[in-house]
Specification:
It contains 20 helices and 27 strands. By secondary structure, it is of the alpha/beta class. The chain has three domains: 244 residues, Glutamine Phosphoribosylpyrophosphate, subunit 1, domain 1 (4-Layer Sandwich), CATH 3.60.20.10; 202 residues, Rossmann fold, CATH 3.40.50; 154 residues, Rossmann fold (3-Layer(aba) Sandwich), CATH 3.40.50. The strands form five sheets. It has an eight-stranded antiparallel beta sheet with strand order 3-2-4-1-10-9-11-15, with helices on one face. It binds fructose -6-phosphate.
C-alpha cells in the first residue's frame, strides 16, 4: 500500500528511483512522483496514473541529481491526482517528503498549522506532516533529523517516511511506525524502500527499520539509527536471500500467470526439508521451540485477511480433522476490535503473504498483550509479522507480485497441512497408515498441480464462454468450501464480475434465487465424502437452468452427464483436494479478466500489501 523508494550516492538518482517504483508498483498505482536534489533545487515531478505516465512526463524535465525520493500511491486522503501525489514539499520549498501510512490526527494538526499561517496545496495527511516538520525546524533552528524526530512524537497513526533537503544533498532521513521500510547498504551509496524488491539488484546488505526508529543516512557518516525517543541504536545488517529473476515476468504475459504456473515449484519449495517420506515424518524448524505448546494447545485461533483468511478456513478443516484441536478462524480486522477471549493454552496462528497487513499486525499485538503464543505463516522473509511472532514457518513461495494472491495461497495451505500432520502425529490423532498415506499424497501434489496446469487451454475455452457474465456463484462443501470462497474472490478482484462463494448446501437458503440461464455456477464436485450431496446440489442448479462448470475427479461420469462443462483434476486424499482444485479457479479468473481487458496484475482500487486499516 504505497511504495517508497529513495537513493543517495554517486549515481544519478532518478533512473534508480524510477526503476524501483516500477518494482513496487504492485503496492499502489494510482499516481506517482519523484523529487531529486540537483544541487540547487528540489525538482519535483508528479503524475496521476501508472509509473509509466510519470516516466513519459519526466522526459521533458531536468532529473539530474544524486539524491532522490519516489512514491507510488494508493490513495487514502484525497483523490488520486497530480496534486495529491507524493512527494510533498514544505511551505518554504526546502524539504520533500514521501509517506506510506495514515496520520490519524492530521485534521487537528492541519487546523493548528493553518491558524499559524501555513497554506496547503493538497488534501493529504502527508503534506500536514511535512509542514509540521518544517515548522519545528524553522522555529527551533534544529537539524532535519531533530525536526523529524520531534514531529513524529506529535503524530498518531502509521508511517514510513523518507525526507530530503534542498540544502544538503549528502543526507536523507527515513523513519517508520507500522509501515515497513528497508535500508540497502551499497558501496558509497544507500537505498531505502518499502520492501527489498527495488534494492536487491544493487546490494544484498539490508537493515530493516523497527517501529519507532529513525535512520539518518549520510554520505559522510553512513547509516545511524535512533528511536523517536532519542535513543541510539546499532543497525543490524542482514543478507537478502531474494533473487532478481524472481522479480521478473520470465516470458509470461502477466505476473499472475507466471505465479499460477510456478505452483508445482512453490509447493515443492514449501515442503522441502520439512516432509520426509523415508522416515515418515514432518519437521517445521521454525516452531520447534514452541512445539510442545502448540501440540498441547486447547484451542487454535487463526487470524488473517482476504485470501490468507481463506487459507485459514482450509486450515480449520485440516487441524480439526487431523490434529483434533478446536479451531476458530477470524478476520484480523474484526478480531482486533472485539474483546476476544484468549485463554491460557490458546495459540494464535496468523497467516499473511506480505507479512505487513495492518489489521493482522494489530491482531497479533492484541493477542500478544493477552499472553497468547503467536505462530506466524508468512511469505516475505524479514517482514514485520514474521518478526513480531514467537515462532513460525515461512511459506517459501517466492515473491508474489501479481496483486491477486495465487501461489501464496497454495503455499499457506501446504504449511497448514504440514502443521496439522505434525501435531496429529505427535498427539496420536492420526492413525499411522493414514498419516503415511497423506504424507505420500502430499509429496505428489506438485506433480498433480502440473497435470492440472495442462488443462489451461480447455479452461481458456470455458472462460471465453462465460467472460460476459455479470454474476457468478462458487459452491463447495467441507474443506472445499473455502476453495469456493477463494474462487469467487479471485474472479471479482481481477475481472470485476460480482461473484459469491457458498457452501453448496447453503445455496437453497437464498442464493438459489439468483440462478437463471445466464448464471455460471462453478462447483467443486470431486469424489470425496460429500460427493453425492454435491451432485444433488448440481441437480438443483440444473433444474433452474443455471450453467454448471464443475471441477471433478478424473474419470468422473456422473457429474459429466449433468454439468455443462467439467474440468478434471487428479484424485488425491480428501484433505488435499484444495491444493489442486484451486488451480482451475485461478486460471478461469485469469483468462476471464484478460478477455475482459482488465489489468490482472494491478486491478483497480487494490494494492498488494494493505498497510492501512
Ligand atoms: C487477494 C489478496 C488479498 C490478501 C489480503 C491479505 O488476492 O491478495 O485478499 O490476501 O489483503 O494480505 P496478506 O496475506 O499479505 O496479509
Amino acid at each position: 500500500m504505497c511504495g517508497i523508494v529513495a537513493y543517495i550516492g554517486e549515481q544519478e538518482a532518478f533512473p534508480i528511483v524510477l526503476k524501483g517504483l516500477k518494482r513496487l508498483e504492485y503496492r499502489g498505482y494510482d499516481s506517482s512522483g519523484i523529487a531529486v536534489n540537483n544541487n540547487l533545487n528540489l525538482n519535483l515531478l508528479k503524475k496521476q496514473g501508472k509509473v509509466a505516465e510519470l516516466e513519459k512526463y519526466a522526459e521533458e524535465f531536468d532529473t539530474s541529481g544524486t539524491v532522490g525520493i519516489g512514491h507510488t500511491r494508493w490513495a487514502t486522503h484525497g483523490a488520486p491526482n497530480d496534486v495529491n501525489a507524493h512527494p510533498h514539499l514544505s511551505g518554504n520549498g526546502k524539504f520533500a517528503l514521501v509517506h506510506n501510512g495514515i496520520i490519524e490526527n492530521y485534521a487537528i494538526l492541519k487546523k493548528e498549522l493553518i491558524s499559524r499561517g501555513h497554506e496547503f496545496k493538497s488534501e493529504t495527511d502527508t503534506e500536514v506532516l511535512m509542514h509540521l516538520i518544517e515548522e519545528i525546524i524553522e522555529k527551533q533552528n534544529v537539524s532535519l533529523l531533530e525536526g523529524v524526530r520531534q514531529a513524529l512524537n506529535e503524530v498518531h497513526g502509521a508511517y514510513a517516511i523518507v525526507i530530503i533537503s534542498k540544502e544538503n544533498n549528502q543526507e536523507l532521513i527515513a523513519a517508520r511506525k507500522s509501515s515497513p521500510l528497508v535500508v540497502g547498504i551499497g558501496k558509497d551509496e544507500f537505498f531505502v524502500a518499502s520492501d527489498a524488491t527495488p534494492i536487491v539488484e544493487y546490494t544484498k546488505n539490508v537493515v530493516y527499520l523497527e517501529d519507532g526508529e529513525i535512520a539518518c543516512i549520510s554520505l559522510d557518516s553512513g547509516l545511524k539509527i535512533k528511536t523517536i525517543s532519542n535513543v541510539e541504536k546499532t543497525p543490524y545488517i542482514q543478507e537478502l536471500e531474494l533473487q532478481l529473476e524472481a522479480l521478473e515476468k520470465g516470458g509470461y504475459e502477466h505476473f499472475m500467470l507466471k505465479e499460477i504456473f510456478e505452483q508445482p515449484r512453490s509447493i515443492m519449495d514449501c515442503m522441502r526439508g520439512r516432509l520426509n517420506l523415508k522416515n515418515s515424518s514432518v519437521a517445521l524448524g521454525g516452531i520447534k521451540d514452541y512445539e510442545e505448546k502448540i501440540v498441547n494447545a486447547k484451542r487454535l485461533i487463526i487470524v488473517a485477511c482476504g485470501t490468507s483468511w481463506h487459507a485459514g478456513i482450509v486450515g480449520e478443516y485440516l487441524l480439526e480433522e487431523l490434529a483434533r484441536i478446536p479451531v476458530e478462524v477470524e478476520y484480523a480486522s474484526e478480531f482486533r476490535y472485539r474483546n476476544p477471549i484468549i485463554n491460557e493454552g490458546d495459540v494464535v496462528i496468523c497467516i499473511s503473504q506480505s507479512g505487513e497487513t495492518a489489521d493482522t499486525l494489530a491482531a497479533i499485538s492484541l493477542a500478544k498483550e493477552r499472553g497468547a503464543t503467536i505462530l506466524g505463516i508468512c511469505n516475505v522473509v524479514g517482514s514485520s509479522i514474521s518478526r513480531l511472532t514467537d515462532c513460525g514457518s515461512y511459506t517459501h513461495a517466492g515473491p508474489e507480485i501479481g496483486v491477486a494472491s495465487t501461489k501464496a495461497f497454495t503455499a499457506q495451505v501446504t504449511v497448514l497441512t504440514l502443521l496439522a500432520l505434525m501435531i496429529g502425529k505427535k498427539k496420536g490423532t492420526i492413525p499411522s497408515n493414514r498419516f503415511n498415506r497423506i504424507l505420500f499424497e502430499l509429496n505428489s501434489i506438485p506433480e498433480k498441480v502440473e497435470e492440472v496446469l495442462k488443462s489451461d487451454k480447455q479452461i481458456n475455452f470455458i472462460s471465453d464462454i462465460y467472460k460476459d457474465a455479470s454474476n457468478a456463484l462458487y459452491l463447495g462443501r467441507g474443506i472445499n468450501f473455502p476453495v469456493a470462497l477463494e474462487g469467487a474472490l479471485k474472479l471479482k478482484e481481477i475481472s470485476y464480475i460480482h461473484a459469491e462463494g457458498y457452501p453448496a448446501a447453503e445455496m437453497k437458503h437464498g442464493p438459489i434465487a439468483l440462478i437463471d440461464e445466464e448464471m455460471p455456477i462453478f462447483v467443486i464436485a470431486t469424489k470425496d465424502a460429500s460427493y453425492e450431496k454435491v451432485v444433488s446440489n448440481i441437480q438443483e442448479v440444473k433444474a433452474r437452468k443455471g450453467k454448471v462448470i464443475a471441477i471433478v475427479t478424473k474419470g468422473d461420469t456422473e457429474v459429466k452427464a449433468i454439468a455443462d462443462h467439467v474440468i478434471e483434476i487428479p484424485h488425491t486424499d480428501d484433505v488435499l483436494v484444495p491444493l489442486i482444485a484451486t488451480i482451475p479457479m485461478q486460471l478461469l479468473s485469469y483468462h476471464i479478466a484478460v478477455m475482459r481487458g482488465c489489468n490482472v496484475d494491478q486491478p483497480r482500487n487494490l494494492a498488494k500489501s494493505v498497510t492501512v486499516e
